[in-house]
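Onboarding guide, step 5: your first structure request.
Type a short instruction followed by the sequence, for example:

Predict the 3D structure of this protein.
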Amino acid sequence: AALLWGMILLGCSCGPGPPRVGAAPLLTATYVLDDSNGLGREFDGIGAVSGGGATSRLLVNYQEPYRSQILDYLFKPNFGASLHILKVEIGGDAQSTDGTEPSHMHYENDENYFRGYEWWLMKEAKKRNPKIKLIGLPWAFPGWIGKGENWPYDYPDITAYYIVSWILGAKEYHDLDIDYVGIWNERAFSSKYIKLLRYTLDKHGLEQVRIIASDRLWEPISFVMLTDSELHGVVDVIGAHYPGTKTVRSAILTEKKLWSSEDYSTFNNDVGAGCWARILNQNYVNGNMTSTIAWNLVASYYEELPFGRCGLMTAQEPWSGHYKVESPIWITAHTTQFTQPGWSYLQVDGHLEGGGSFVALTDGLGNLTIIIETMSHNHSKCIRPLLPNFSVIPQRATFYLKGSFYMVQTLQVWHSRLDFEFGNSTLFQQLHPVNVWKGRFSLDLNVDEVYTLTTLKTGRKRGCPEPPPPQPFPSNYKDDFNIRNPPFSEAPNFADQTGVFEYFINASDPGDHVFTLRQVVVQRPITWVSDADQTISVIGNFKWVNITVTCDIYIEKPRDGGVFIAGRVDNGGIYVRQTKGVFFWVFADGTYRVTSDLAGKEILMKGLSGVRDNAWHTLTLNIQGNSASGLLNGYPLWENVTVSKPRNGWAALGTRSFEFAQFDNFHVE
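The system replies with structure tokens like these:
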């Protein structure tokens, strides 16, 4: 009888095959999936963030067909990641991790719904999946909203109007319906503001837009909602960041939807894939979270900026066309290709006896999807929070299907195995279907695997032709900004780190400088991190050592205005205030400086230049080895300045303060 029972188990199991002769017997356990007594929480989808900030900056510069291929891998149903949700930054003109994103209202009397690239990205996502949910969330705000204070809640009616105008503009100019809106990323919330935001949304006919709060921690928002019935009534989703798969009692007591509204943020190798696989399941199993949203969507920013390659895939070389479909894309597919928002989780404890987890979801129409992960501790560490120790061992799981699932006869099987020993991972492979015998099937599970078992037959692992090989940034690069109707507001490959640099038409110019690049933020924004006091945009190859930068410059601010060009720039993102390099400054008062820092305090050389405001001048910075020199209008202004650190870095341009200034005929060699 024991032999027969063993043959039956093996006959309806799938996985790596029978254990080797002499191997220890597998741990065995049974799990029941039953909808007879009702269902669990409603599933709200898996998504990713573009923004917070400028994480998709280089994506827009890709040529076709590569750009569309990347977008297909992210958004196209049954193709790759097949994302259910796209969350974007509502640009606030300030540094928000890897750069600044432009606001739709730089100034109080200014509205422009074509700045930046998030509008374009949302449209591309909707084009591929009309059902995708859209979320907007501000990280920062233009300075005028705070009337000089670094705080968006002193004038909550102005802040609410500003956010609602973005939602209205999305519809009016791009036919985009925003589904959810947040408050202020990872910063304080104001109950008064949230209530006023709901009122303003309703007043403008946006009753369907739901509010997520507070995109930080479970507390204090959950506790405040329990004590403030009006606030409880206007918040639809409690969103926490990096919750470590856990929630808190007060959040559960609100009876609201609970989301991990930002998570992952991990280098996108196989360990990152293991992190993502684990939290996609365990955020629900441990924390009742019905949506998990990855920061970030695609690593499309210079890799040496903070959190390089912390996207679901990598696309950071528009000049070559090279991109890489990383393993987290296929881990995502295990859930997204076989579920939809509106499905429901089954009521079951999803912890596996041998370690790991499973979730089961249904559409309520007889379809069933089970996702299993057996990620080991060291192979599934996320960037945060600290992961407590646990163990995972090979095991045999037997599932009993009851209720409306009892009659299921076969399940489609998709499998991934992350191979950390030889680097030979298998990702999202379709295996033979598993036969279900009298409502029962068994599965042999190894460590670091993901399985999807589903009644759906729609899964696909699509592929595009191999993209071009990687290439460094061109060693000789020019941009004259001569474009009358640019597809985007920013020039290709420039990555703004403080301030916003936009294409500009200089209507009063006699002809040489009609089309320029202009820095347009003239008041310090309500910041998310500590932006620099100067504005700066970086470009190029971080490994550059010997470099010549030439650019025409135009100071608009009289008396104390100033601009710079720079080389060997070593920092950006949230660390922009600490930036070092070789900076060649000229000022409206007719002086110049050479400094080794963006702050302008470490002076290497200074003197008179004769430069004045409201006139064009050409600056040239040459750095060779330990020596730097500078030219003004083609003539030497200073030379033989010794530079020791940093040894390498990007090229850059920028301004002395938040001031208007223009740049033209940029050339780096």
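Each response can be followed by summary notes, for example: Residues 1-13, 15-22 have pLDDT under 50 and may be disordered.
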